[in-house]
Amino acid sequence: MYYGYFNGAIAPTDQLAIGVTDLSLLRGYGLFDYFLTYNGRPFQWDWYWERFQNSASRMHLPLPLGKDETYAVVMNLVERSNNAIRTSGLATPIDVGFRFVLTGGYSADSISVVRPNLLIMAEPIHPVPLVQYELGIKVILDDYVREMAEVKSTDYKRVILMAEAIRAARASDLLYQKGGEISELSRSNFFLVKGDRLITPDKHILHGITRKTIIQLAQSDFKVEERTVLLSELYDADEAFTTSSTKRVLPVTQIGDLTIGDGHVGPKSKFLLERFDELVKAW
Amino acid sequence: MYYGYFNGAIAPTDQLAIGVTDLSLLRGYGLFDYFLTYNGRPFQWDWYWERFQNSASRMHLPLPLGKDETYAVVMNLVERSNNAIRTSGLATPIDVGFRFVLTGGYSADSISVVRPNLLIMAEPIHPVPLVQYELGIKVILDDYVREMAEVKSTDYKRVILMAEAIRAARASDLLYQKGGEISELSRSNFFLVKGDRLITPDKHILHGITRKTIIQLAQSDFKVEERTVLLSELYDADEAFTTSSTKRVLPVTQIGDLTIGDGHVGPKSKFLLERFDELVKAW
After folding, report:
1. Of A83, A179, A262, B23, which is most buried by a Cβ count within 10 Å?
2. In this structure, what CATH number is given to the domain that contains residue B68?
3. Closest by CA position to B30, among listed A62, A29, A91, A201
4. pTM of this prediction exceeds 0.90
Protein backbone atom coordinates (compact mmCIF):
# COMPACT_ATOMS: atom_id res chain seq x y z
CA MET A 1 0.00 0.00 0.00
CA TYR A 2 1.29 3.42 -0.96
CA TYR A 3 0.62 6.67 0.81
CA GLY A 4 -0.07 10.16 -0.41
CA TYR A 5 -0.42 13.69 0.89
CA PHE A 6 -3.22 16.04 -0.11
CA ASN A 7 -3.44 19.60 1.26
CA GLY A 8 -2.05 18.66 4.66
CA ALA A 9 -3.61 15.21 5.12
CA ILE A 10 -1.82 11.89 4.65
CA ALA A 11 -3.69 8.70 3.69
CA PRO A 12 -3.36 5.59 1.51
CA THR A 13 -3.43 6.81 -2.11
CA ASP A 14 -6.61 4.93 -2.99
CA GLN A 15 -8.42 6.86 -0.27
CA LEU A 16 -7.33 10.28 -1.54
CA ALA A 17 -9.84 12.24 -3.62
CA ILE A 18 -10.13 15.73 -5.02
CA GLY A 19 -13.31 17.80 -5.26
CA VAL A 20 -14.90 18.06 -8.69
CA THR A 21 -14.52 21.82 -9.03
CA ASP A 22 -10.74 21.60 -9.24
CA LEU A 23 -9.31 23.50 -12.21
CA SER A 24 -7.12 20.60 -13.30
CA LEU A 25 -10.27 18.53 -13.86
CA LEU A 26 -12.37 21.33 -15.36
CA ARG A 27 -9.73 23.31 -17.27
CA GLY A 28 -6.55 21.25 -17.47
CA TYR A 29 -4.80 23.77 -15.23
CA GLY A 30 -2.19 21.81 -13.35
CA LEU A 31 1.47 20.86 -13.32
CA PHE A 32 3.42 17.98 -11.91
CA ASP A 33 6.81 16.47 -11.36
CA TYR A 34 8.03 12.94 -10.94
CA PHE A 35 11.19 11.43 -9.48
CA LEU A 36 12.44 8.21 -7.88
CA THR A 37 14.14 7.36 -4.66
CA TYR A 38 17.37 5.34 -4.74
CA ASN A 39 18.41 3.61 -1.52
CA GLY A 40 15.46 5.37 0.09
CA ARG A 41 16.70 8.85 -0.84
CA PRO A 42 15.09 11.17 -3.45
CA PHE A 43 17.35 11.23 -6.51
CA GLN A 44 18.58 14.74 -7.48
CA TRP A 45 16.14 16.32 -5.03
CA ASP A 46 17.58 19.82 -5.37
CA TRP A 47 17.16 19.79 -9.13
CA TYR A 48 13.64 18.37 -9.05
CA TRP A 49 12.53 20.89 -6.46
CA GLU A 50 13.99 23.74 -8.51
CA ARG A 51 12.12 22.55 -11.61
CA PHE A 52 8.85 22.08 -9.73
CA GLN A 53 9.17 25.58 -8.29
CA ASN A 54 9.93 26.96 -11.73
CA SER A 55 6.89 25.26 -13.31
CA ALA A 56 4.69 26.64 -10.50
CA SER A 57 6.05 30.13 -10.99
CA ARG A 58 5.55 29.97 -14.76
CA MET A 59 1.92 28.96 -14.21
CA HIS A 60 1.43 31.66 -11.53
CA LEU A 61 0.62 29.11 -8.82
CA PRO A 62 2.04 29.86 -5.36
CA LEU A 63 3.52 26.76 -3.69
CA PRO A 64 1.69 25.85 -0.47
CA LEU A 65 4.82 24.23 1.04
CA GLY A 66 8.47 25.24 1.18
CA LYS A 67 11.36 22.98 0.17
CA ASP A 68 12.19 21.62 3.63
CA GLU A 69 8.55 21.02 4.57
CA THR A 70 8.05 19.19 1.30
CA TYR A 71 11.15 17.08 1.87
CA ALA A 72 9.78 16.10 5.29
CA VAL A 73 6.49 15.02 3.67
CA VAL A 74 8.40 13.00 1.08
CA MET A 75 10.44 11.17 3.73
CA ASN A 76 7.30 10.59 5.80
CA LEU A 77 5.62 8.97 2.78
CA VAL A 78 8.73 6.88 2.02
CA GLU A 79 8.63 5.51 5.55
CA ARG A 80 4.88 4.87 5.67
CA SER A 81 4.85 3.26 2.23
CA ASN A 82 7.82 1.09 3.21
CA ASN A 83 6.19 0.00 6.46
CA ALA A 84 2.99 -0.86 4.62
CA ILE A 85 4.72 -2.74 1.78
CA ARG A 86 7.12 -4.80 3.90
CA THR A 87 5.76 -8.11 4.94
CA SER A 88 9.01 -9.50 6.31
CA GLY A 89 11.97 -7.99 8.11
CA LEU A 90 13.65 -6.62 4.96
CA ALA A 91 16.53 -4.32 5.79
CA THR A 92 16.94 -2.47 2.49
CA PRO A 93 14.46 0.29 1.69
CA ILE A 94 11.96 -0.30 -1.11
CA ASP A 95 12.36 2.50 -3.63
CA VAL A 96 9.31 4.38 -4.83
CA GLY A 97 8.29 6.89 -7.46
CA PHE A 98 7.07 10.30 -6.34
CA ARG A 99 4.46 12.29 -8.18
CA PHE A 100 3.85 15.91 -7.22
CA VAL A 101 0.71 17.51 -8.66
CA LEU A 102 -0.09 21.20 -8.19
CA THR A 103 -3.45 22.33 -9.59
CA GLY A 104 -5.32 25.62 -10.01
CA GLY A 105 -7.43 24.57 -7.02
CA TYR A 106 -11.17 24.74 -6.45
CA SER A 107 -12.95 27.41 -8.43
CA ALA A 108 -16.52 28.62 -7.86
CA ASP A 109 -16.78 30.11 -11.37
CA SER A 110 -14.68 27.31 -12.97
CA ILE A 111 -12.08 29.76 -14.26
CA SER A 112 -10.56 31.86 -11.43
CA VAL A 113 -7.60 30.58 -9.42
CA VAL A 114 -8.01 31.11 -5.67
CA ARG A 115 -5.71 28.65 -3.88
CA PRO A 116 -3.81 25.74 -5.49
CA ASN A 117 -4.28 22.14 -4.40
CA LEU A 118 -1.11 20.16 -3.72
CA LEU A 119 -0.94 16.39 -4.04
CA ILE A 120 2.18 14.32 -3.30
CA MET A 121 1.97 10.61 -3.99
CA ALA A 122 4.36 7.73 -3.44
CA GLU A 123 3.86 5.20 -6.24
CA PRO A 124 5.18 1.80 -7.25
CA ILE A 125 7.89 2.16 -9.90
CA HIS A 126 6.96 0.66 -13.28
CA PRO A 127 10.32 -0.52 -14.61
CA VAL A 128 11.03 -0.66 -18.34
CA PRO A 129 11.11 -4.32 -19.51
CA LEU A 130 14.72 -5.57 -19.71
CA VAL A 131 14.26 -6.72 -23.31
CA GLN A 132 13.90 -3.08 -24.34
CA TYR A 133 17.42 -2.38 -23.07
CA GLU A 134 18.71 -5.40 -25.00
CA LEU A 135 16.97 -4.68 -28.31
CA GLY A 136 16.23 -0.97 -28.11
CA ILE A 137 12.78 0.48 -28.77
CA LYS A 138 10.94 1.64 -31.85
CA VAL A 139 9.31 5.08 -31.90
CA ILE A 140 7.20 6.77 -34.55
CA LEU A 141 7.50 10.37 -35.68
CA ASP A 142 4.67 12.71 -34.77
CA ASP A 143 4.20 16.16 -36.25
CA TYR A 144 3.69 17.93 -32.95
CA VAL A 145 5.32 20.22 -30.44
CA ARG A 146 4.23 20.52 -26.80
CA GLU A 147 2.78 23.83 -25.70
CA MET A 148 5.03 25.41 -23.04
CA ALA A 149 7.19 22.28 -23.24
CA GLU A 150 9.64 23.61 -20.65
CA VAL A 151 6.87 23.68 -18.02
CA LYS A 152 5.88 20.27 -16.72
CA SER A 153 2.17 20.95 -17.10
CA THR A 154 -0.23 18.02 -16.93
CA ASP A 155 -0.92 18.33 -20.66
CA TYR A 156 -0.05 14.87 -22.01
CA LYS A 157 -3.19 14.49 -24.13
CA ARG A 158 -1.23 13.85 -27.28
CA VAL A 159 0.37 10.53 -26.34
CA ILE A 160 -2.90 9.14 -24.94
CA LEU A 161 -4.69 10.24 -28.09
CA MET A 162 -2.03 8.50 -30.21
CA ALA A 163 -1.96 5.27 -28.16
CA GLU A 164 -3.69 3.28 -30.90
CA ALA A 165 -1.33 4.58 -33.63
CA ILE A 166 1.67 3.64 -31.47
CA ARG A 167 0.31 0.13 -30.90
CA ALA A 168 -0.55 -0.31 -34.58
CA ALA A 169 3.06 0.52 -35.53
CA ARG A 170 4.35 -1.91 -32.87
CA ALA A 171 6.20 1.05 -31.41
CA SER A 172 6.72 2.19 -27.81
CA ASP A 173 6.38 5.92 -28.08
CA LEU A 174 6.26 9.07 -30.21
CA LEU A 175 9.19 11.22 -31.29
CA TYR A 176 7.89 14.77 -31.74
CA GLN A 177 9.08 16.86 -34.66
CA LYS A 178 7.76 20.10 -36.11
CA GLY A 179 9.03 21.64 -39.33
CA GLY A 180 11.83 19.10 -39.45
CA GLU A 181 13.12 19.94 -35.96
CA ILE A 182 13.18 17.18 -33.37
CA SER A 183 12.21 18.04 -29.80
CA GLU A 184 11.55 15.05 -27.51
CA LEU A 185 9.63 11.83 -26.96
CA SER A 186 6.23 12.07 -25.29
CA ARG A 187 7.66 11.79 -21.77
CA SER A 188 11.43 11.66 -22.19
CA ASN A 189 14.35 13.45 -23.83
CA PHE A 190 16.19 12.44 -26.97
CA PHE A 191 19.90 12.03 -27.78
CA LEU A 192 21.90 11.11 -30.87
CA VAL A 193 25.44 9.71 -30.90
CA LYS A 194 27.76 10.44 -33.84
CA GLY A 195 31.34 9.34 -33.23
CA ASP A 196 32.33 11.03 -29.96
CA ARG A 197 29.60 13.64 -30.26
CA LEU A 198 26.51 13.48 -28.06
CA ILE A 199 23.76 15.63 -29.58
CA THR A 200 20.46 16.62 -27.95
CA PRO A 201 17.74 19.19 -28.75
CA ASP A 202 17.67 22.30 -26.55
CA LYS A 203 14.34 23.90 -27.56
CA HIS A 204 10.66 22.98 -27.06
CA ILE A 205 11.71 20.34 -24.56
CA LEU A 206 11.17 19.61 -20.93
CA HIS A 207 14.54 20.06 -19.30
CA GLY A 208 14.84 16.55 -17.96
CA ILE A 209 16.78 15.87 -14.78
CA THR A 210 18.03 12.57 -16.20
CA ARG A 211 19.03 14.48 -19.38
CA LYS A 212 21.01 16.92 -17.21
CA THR A 213 22.58 14.05 -15.26
CA ILE A 214 23.62 12.26 -18.48
CA ILE A 215 25.11 15.44 -19.92
CA GLN A 216 27.23 15.78 -16.75
CA LEU A 217 28.28 12.13 -16.82
CA ALA A 218 29.21 12.40 -20.52
CA GLN A 219 31.46 15.45 -20.23
CA SER A 220 34.79 13.59 -20.00
CA ASP A 221 34.10 11.12 -22.84
CA PHE A 222 31.93 13.04 -25.32
CA LYS A 223 31.69 16.36 -27.05
CA VAL A 224 28.19 17.37 -25.94
CA GLU A 225 26.10 19.52 -28.31
CA GLU A 226 22.84 21.01 -27.02
CA ARG A 227 21.28 22.59 -30.10
CA THR A 228 18.60 22.38 -32.78
CA VAL A 229 18.50 18.82 -34.13
CA LEU A 230 17.09 18.21 -37.61
CA LEU A 231 15.23 15.12 -38.78
CA SER A 232 17.84 14.71 -41.51
CA GLU A 233 20.47 14.06 -38.84
CA LEU A 234 18.83 10.76 -37.96
CA TYR A 235 20.16 9.21 -41.17
CA ASP A 236 23.85 9.19 -40.26
CA ALA A 237 23.52 8.75 -36.49
CA ASP A 238 25.45 5.84 -34.94
CA GLU A 239 23.10 5.51 -31.99
CA ALA A 240 20.05 7.12 -30.45
CA PHE A 241 18.60 6.90 -26.96
CA THR A 242 16.02 8.47 -24.72
CA THR A 243 16.32 9.50 -21.07
CA SER A 244 13.86 9.87 -18.22
CA SER A 245 13.76 8.99 -14.54
CA THR A 246 12.21 5.58 -15.19
CA LYS A 247 13.81 4.89 -18.61
CA ARG A 248 17.33 5.95 -17.49
CA VAL A 249 19.25 5.52 -20.80
CA LEU A 250 17.00 3.55 -23.14
CA PRO A 251 18.29 2.82 -26.67
CA VAL A 252 16.13 3.80 -29.65
CA THR A 253 16.98 1.51 -32.56
CA GLN A 254 14.13 2.29 -34.95
CA ILE A 255 12.32 5.53 -35.82
CA GLY A 256 9.37 4.85 -38.09
CA ASP A 257 10.84 2.91 -41.03
CA LEU A 258 14.36 4.11 -40.34
CA THR A 259 16.86 1.86 -38.60
CA ILE A 260 19.34 3.77 -36.45
CA GLY A 261 23.00 2.76 -37.03
CA ASP A 262 23.18 -1.00 -37.50
CA GLY A 263 19.89 -1.54 -35.66
CA HIS A 264 21.54 -2.88 -32.54
CA VAL A 265 22.05 -1.26 -29.18
CA GLY A 266 25.33 0.63 -29.45
CA PRO A 267 28.35 0.75 -27.11
CA LYS A 268 28.01 4.44 -26.24
CA SER A 269 24.40 4.02 -25.07
CA LYS A 270 25.50 1.03 -22.96
CA PHE A 271 28.43 3.01 -21.57
CA LEU A 272 26.19 5.90 -20.47
CA LEU A 273 23.61 3.55 -18.95
CA GLU A 274 26.41 1.92 -16.93
CA ARG A 275 27.68 5.31 -15.74
CA PHE A 276 24.13 6.25 -14.73
CA ASP A 277 23.52 2.97 -12.90
CA GLU A 278 26.82 3.40 -11.00
CA LEU A 279 25.75 6.88 -9.91
CA VAL A 280 22.36 5.79 -8.60
CA LYS A 281 23.75 2.69 -6.93
CA ALA A 282 25.92 4.93 -4.77
CA TRP A 283 23.18 7.57 -4.24
CA MET B 1 -27.57 23.53 -3.16
CA TYR B 2 -26.78 21.96 -6.50
CA TYR B 3 -26.57 18.28 -7.30
CA GLY B 4 -24.25 16.26 -9.44
CA TYR B 5 -23.88 12.75 -10.82
CA PHE B 6 -20.61 10.82 -10.76
CA ASN B 7 -20.34 7.31 -12.21
CA GLY B 8 -23.86 6.33 -11.18
CA ALA B 9 -24.15 8.13 -7.84
CA ILE B 10 -26.00 11.39 -7.24
CA ALA B 11 -25.03 13.78 -4.42
CA PRO B 12 -24.69 17.49 -3.65
CA THR B 13 -21.83 18.77 -5.82
CA ASP B 14 -19.66 19.77 -2.87
CA GLN B 15 -19.71 16.15 -1.70
CA LEU B 16 -18.56 14.74 -5.04
CA ALA B 17 -14.90 13.82 -5.38
CA ILE B 18 -12.73 12.01 -7.87
CA GLY B 19 -9.81 9.70 -7.06
CA VAL B 20 -6.34 11.13 -7.54
CA THR B 21 -5.25 8.67 -10.23
CA ASP B 22 -7.72 10.08 -12.75
CA LEU B 23 -6.10 10.91 -16.09
CA SER B 24 -7.68 14.37 -16.26
CA LEU B 25 -5.80 15.29 -13.10
CA LEU B 26 -2.54 13.52 -13.99
CA ARG B 27 -2.43 14.00 -17.78
CA GLY B 28 -5.03 16.58 -18.75
CA TYR B 29 -7.00 13.87 -20.56
CA GLY B 30 -10.60 14.94 -20.38
CA LEU B 31 -13.35 16.69 -22.28
CA PHE B 32 -16.47 18.52 -21.27
CA ASP B 33 -19.56 20.30 -22.44
CA TYR B 34 -21.73 23.00 -20.96
CA PHE B 35 -25.28 24.14 -21.57
CA LEU B 36 -28.16 25.89 -19.82
CA THR B 37 -31.75 25.06 -19.14
CA TYR B 38 -34.46 27.53 -20.13
CA ASN B 39 -37.84 27.15 -18.47
CA GLY B 40 -36.45 24.02 -16.88
CA ARG B 41 -35.60 22.37 -20.23
CA PRO B 42 -32.08 21.79 -21.60
CA PHE B 43 -31.49 24.26 -24.44
CA GLN B 44 -30.63 22.63 -27.81
CA TRP B 45 -30.20 19.26 -26.09
CA ASP B 46 -29.87 17.31 -29.37
CA TRP B 47 -27.04 19.50 -30.60
CA TYR B 48 -25.18 19.48 -27.30
CA TRP B 49 -25.43 15.71 -27.03
CA GLU B 50 -24.18 15.30 -30.59
CA ARG B 51 -21.17 17.52 -29.85
CA PHE B 52 -20.39 15.76 -26.56
CA GLN B 53 -20.56 12.40 -28.33
CA ASN B 54 -18.32 13.69 -31.09
CA SER B 55 -15.72 15.02 -28.62
CA ALA B 56 -15.73 11.66 -26.83
CA SER B 57 -15.28 9.79 -30.08
CA ARG B 58 -12.43 12.06 -31.18
CA MET B 59 -10.68 11.40 -27.87
CA HIS B 60 -11.37 7.64 -28.10
CA LEU B 61 -13.42 7.61 -24.88
CA PRO B 62 -16.51 5.37 -24.87
CA LEU B 63 -19.54 7.07 -23.33
CA PRO B 64 -20.77 5.23 -20.21
CA LEU B 65 -24.37 6.42 -20.75
CA GLY B 66 -26.63 6.67 -23.78
CA LYS B 67 -28.54 9.79 -24.80
CA ASP B 68 -31.84 8.93 -23.11
CA GLU B 69 -30.22 7.74 -19.88
CA THR B 70 -28.20 10.94 -19.76
CA TYR B 71 -31.30 13.04 -20.35
CA ALA B 72 -32.99 11.27 -17.44
CA VAL B 73 -30.01 12.10 -15.20
CA VAL B 74 -30.12 15.73 -16.32
CA MET B 75 -33.82 16.06 -15.52
CA ASN B 76 -33.29 14.31 -12.18
CA LEU B 77 -30.60 16.86 -11.30
CA VAL B 78 -32.77 19.76 -12.43
CA GLU B 79 -35.51 18.59 -10.10
CA ARG B 80 -33.25 17.89 -7.12
CA SER B 81 -31.40 21.17 -7.51
CA ASN B 82 -34.69 23.04 -7.83
CA ASN B 83 -36.12 21.38 -4.72
CA ALA B 84 -32.98 22.21 -2.78
CA ILE B 85 -32.75 25.82 -4.00
CA ARG B 86 -36.41 26.78 -3.51
CA THR B 87 -37.16 28.23 -0.15
CA SER B 88 -40.69 29.33 -0.97
CA GLY B 89 -43.44 27.93 -3.14
CA LEU B 90 -42.03 29.35 -6.40
CA ALA B 91 -43.86 27.97 -9.40
CA THR B 92 -41.35 28.77 -12.18
CA PRO B 93 -38.33 26.49 -12.47
CA ILE B 94 -34.94 27.91 -11.57
CA ASP B 95 -32.67 27.50 -14.57
CA VAL B 96 -29.25 25.96 -14.12
CA GLY B 97 -26.05 25.41 -16.02
CA PHE B 98 -24.99 21.85 -16.81
CA ARG B 99 -21.39 20.74 -17.00
CA PHE B 100 -20.57 17.30 -18.39
CA VAL B 101 -17.01 16.09 -17.81
CA LEU B 102 -15.70 12.85 -19.32
CA THR B 103 -12.18 11.89 -18.30
CA GLY B 104 -9.66 9.19 -19.21
CA GLY B 105 -10.58 7.51 -15.90
CA TYR B 106 -8.41 5.95 -13.23
CA SER B 107 -5.08 4.65 -14.46
CA ALA B 108 -2.71 2.40 -12.53
CA ASP B 109 0.28 3.34 -14.70
CA SER B 110 -0.85 7.00 -15.08
CA ILE B 111 -1.01 6.74 -18.87
CA SER B 112 -3.34 3.91 -20.02
CA VAL B 113 -7.07 4.49 -20.43
CA VAL B 114 -9.17 1.70 -18.94
CA ARG B 115 -12.66 3.10 -18.27
CA PRO B 116 -13.70 6.77 -18.45
CA ASN B 117 -15.18 8.62 -15.50
CA LEU B 118 -18.36 10.62 -16.17
CA LEU B 119 -19.37 13.62 -14.12
CA ILE B 120 -22.58 15.60 -14.68
CA MET B 121 -23.06 18.70 -12.55
CA ALA B 122 -25.87 21.18 -12.23
CA GLU B 123 -24.39 24.61 -11.47
CA PRO B 124 -25.59 28.12 -10.73
CA ILE B 125 -25.52 30.26 -13.89
CA HIS B 126 -23.04 33.15 -13.71
CA PRO B 127 -24.76 35.81 -15.82
CA VAL B 128 -22.72 38.39 -17.75
CA PRO B 129 -23.05 41.84 -16.06
CA LEU B 130 -25.71 43.94 -17.84
CA VAL B 131 -23.31 46.83 -18.29
CA GLN B 132 -21.29 44.66 -20.69
CA TYR B 133 -24.31 44.41 -23.01
CA GLU B 134 -24.75 48.19 -22.83
CA LEU B 135 -21.12 49.16 -23.43
CA GLY B 136 -19.66 46.09 -25.08
CA ILE B 137 -16.48 44.43 -23.90
CA LYS B 138 -12.80 44.90 -24.62
CA VAL B 139 -10.67 41.92 -25.61
CA ILE B 140 -6.95 41.66 -26.29
CA LEU B 141 -5.32 39.80 -29.14
CA ASP B 142 -3.34 36.70 -28.27
CA ASP B 143 -0.99 34.91 -30.64
CA TYR B 144 -2.37 31.45 -30.01
CA VAL B 145 -4.48 28.71 -31.49
CA ARG B 146 -6.14 25.96 -29.46
CA GLU B 147 -4.94 22.40 -30.02
CA MET B 148 -7.79 20.29 -31.40
CA ALA B 149 -10.04 23.35 -31.06
CA GLU B 150 -13.04 21.50 -32.50
CA VAL B 151 -12.95 19.04 -29.58
CA LYS B 152 -14.18 20.50 -26.30
CA SER B 153 -11.22 19.12 -24.34
CA THR B 154 -10.61 20.50 -20.85
CA ASP B 155 -7.50 22.33 -22.10
CA TYR B 156 -8.20 25.94 -21.14
CA LYS B 157 -4.76 26.60 -19.64
CA ARG B 158 -4.11 29.58 -21.88
CA VAL B 159 -6.81 31.91 -20.56
CA ILE B 160 -5.97 31.13 -16.92
CA LEU B 161 -2.30 31.72 -17.67
CA MET B 162 -3.16 35.07 -19.28
CA ALA B 163 -5.55 36.22 -16.53
CA GLU B 164 -3.13 38.87 -15.26
CA ALA B 165 -2.47 40.25 -18.78
CA ILE B 166 -6.24 40.51 -19.37
CA ARG B 167 -6.74 42.35 -16.07
CA ALA B 168 -3.79 44.67 -16.73
CA ALA B 169 -5.34 45.68 -20.08
CA ARG B 170 -8.74 46.22 -18.39
CA ALA B 171 -10.08 43.69 -20.85
CA SER B 172 -12.54 40.82 -20.42
CA ASP B 173 -11.04 38.12 -22.57
CA LEU B 174 -8.58 37.06 -25.27
CA LEU B 175 -9.17 36.99 -29.02
CA TYR B 176 -6.94 34.26 -30.47
CA GLN B 177 -5.14 34.84 -33.76
CA LYS B 178 -2.31 32.97 -35.42
CA GLY B 179 -0.52 34.16 -38.52
CA GLY B 180 -3.08 36.93 -38.94
CA GLU B 181 -6.06 34.56 -38.90
CA ILE B 182 -8.68 35.04 -36.21
CA SER B 183 -10.20 31.94 -34.60
CA GLU B 184 -12.20 32.56 -31.41
CA LEU B 185 -12.23 34.03 -27.91
CA SER B 186 -11.00 31.85 -25.06
CA ARG B 187 -14.45 30.31 -24.43
CA SER B 188 -16.73 31.77 -27.08
CA ASN B 189 -17.05 32.30 -30.83
CA PHE B 190 -16.45 35.48 -32.76
CA PHE B 191 -18.52 37.36 -35.36
CA LEU B 192 -18.03 40.51 -37.43
CA VAL B 193 -20.81 42.60 -39.02
CA LYS B 194 -20.15 44.53 -42.24
CA GLY B 195 -23.30 46.01 -43.76
CA ASP B 196 -25.69 43.08 -44.11
CA ARG B 197 -22.87 40.51 -43.96
CA LEU B 198 -22.36 38.40 -40.87
CA ILE B 199 -18.83 36.93 -40.91
CA THR B 200 -17.42 34.25 -38.61
CA PRO B 201 -14.29 32.06 -38.63
CA ASP B 202 -14.82 28.42 -39.57
CA LYS B 203 -11.43 26.88 -38.69
CA HIS B 204 -9.56 26.19 -35.43
CA ILE B 205 -12.75 26.90 -33.52
CA LEU B 206 -15.06 25.08 -31.22
CA HIS B 207 -18.31 24.73 -33.12
CA GLY B 208 -20.47 26.58 -30.63
CA ILE B 209 -24.12 25.72 -30.25
CA THR B 210 -24.97 29.38 -29.67
CA ARG B 211 -22.92 30.19 -32.80
CA LYS B 212 -25.00 27.67 -34.76
CA THR B 213 -28.24 29.04 -33.29
CA ILE B 214 -27.28 32.61 -34.23
CA ILE B 215 -26.36 31.59 -37.77
CA GLN B 216 -29.83 30.03 -38.12
CA LEU B 217 -31.57 33.06 -36.64
CA ALA B 218 -29.60 35.38 -38.93
CA GLN B 219 -30.42 33.63 -42.21
CA SER B 220 -33.34 35.81 -43.26
CA ASP B 221 -31.69 39.18 -42.45
CA PHE B 222 -27.99 38.62 -43.16
CA LYS B 223 -25.67 37.17 -45.72
CA VAL B 224 -23.76 34.72 -43.50
CA GLU B 225 -20.11 33.98 -44.35
CA GLU B 226 -18.35 31.14 -42.50
CA ARG B 227 -14.74 31.40 -43.66
CA THR B 228 -11.19 32.40 -42.80
CA VAL B 229 -11.25 35.82 -41.13
CA LEU B 230 -8.13 37.98 -41.22
CA LEU B 231 -6.99 40.42 -38.57
CA SER B 232 -7.01 43.15 -41.22
CA GLU B 233 -10.79 42.78 -41.52
CA LEU B 234 -11.27 44.20 -38.04
CA TYR B 235 -10.44 47.70 -39.32
CA ASP B 236 -13.55 48.23 -41.44
CA ALA B 237 -16.03 46.15 -39.39
CA ASP B 238 -19.22 47.92 -38.31
CA GLU B 239 -19.74 45.67 -35.31
CA ALA B 240 -18.26 42.65 -33.57
CA PHE B 241 -19.71 40.29 -31.02
CA THR B 242 -19.04 37.00 -29.31
CA THR B 243 -21.42 34.10 -28.65
CA SER B 244 -21.61 31.38 -26.02
CA SER B 245 -24.29 29.77 -23.91
CA THR B 246 -23.83 32.23 -21.04
CA LYS B 247 -22.77 35.28 -23.13
CA ARG B 248 -25.59 34.84 -25.71
CA VAL B 249 -24.74 37.73 -28.11
CA LEU B 250 -22.23 39.95 -26.34
CA PRO B 251 -20.91 43.01 -28.22
CA VAL B 252 -17.15 43.48 -28.56
CA THR B 253 -16.42 47.19 -28.94
CA GLN B 254 -12.66 47.24 -28.45
CA ILE B 255 -9.89 44.86 -29.55
CA GLY B 256 -6.57 45.88 -28.05
CA ASP B 257 -6.13 49.53 -29.08
CA LEU B 258 -8.61 49.25 -31.93
CA THR B 259 -12.15 50.58 -31.56
CA ILE B 260 -14.70 48.59 -33.53
CA GLY B 261 -17.07 50.75 -35.63
CA ASP B 262 -17.98 53.89 -33.66
CA GLY B 263 -17.17 52.19 -30.35
CA HIS B 264 -20.81 51.74 -29.36
CA VAL B 265 -22.96 48.65 -29.32
CA GLY B 266 -24.42 48.39 -32.82
CA PRO B 267 -28.00 47.74 -33.99
CA LYS B 268 -27.25 44.39 -35.64
CA SER B 269 -25.78 42.95 -32.45
CA LYS B 270 -28.82 44.18 -30.53
CA PHE B 271 -31.14 42.72 -33.15
CA LEU B 272 -29.54 39.27 -32.92
CA LEU B 273 -29.51 39.32 -29.12
CA GLU B 274 -33.25 40.10 -29.21
CA ARG B 275 -33.93 37.26 -31.65
CA PHE B 276 -31.94 34.91 -29.39
CA ASP B 277 -33.74 36.03 -26.24
CA GLU B 278 -37.12 35.52 -27.95
CA LEU B 279 -36.11 31.99 -28.89
CA VAL B 280 -35.04 30.98 -25.39
CA LYS B 281 -38.05 32.68 -23.77
CA ALA B 282 -40.30 30.35 -25.73
CA TRP B 283 -38.04 27.28 -25.24
Report:
1. B23
2. 3.30.470.10
3. A29
4. yes
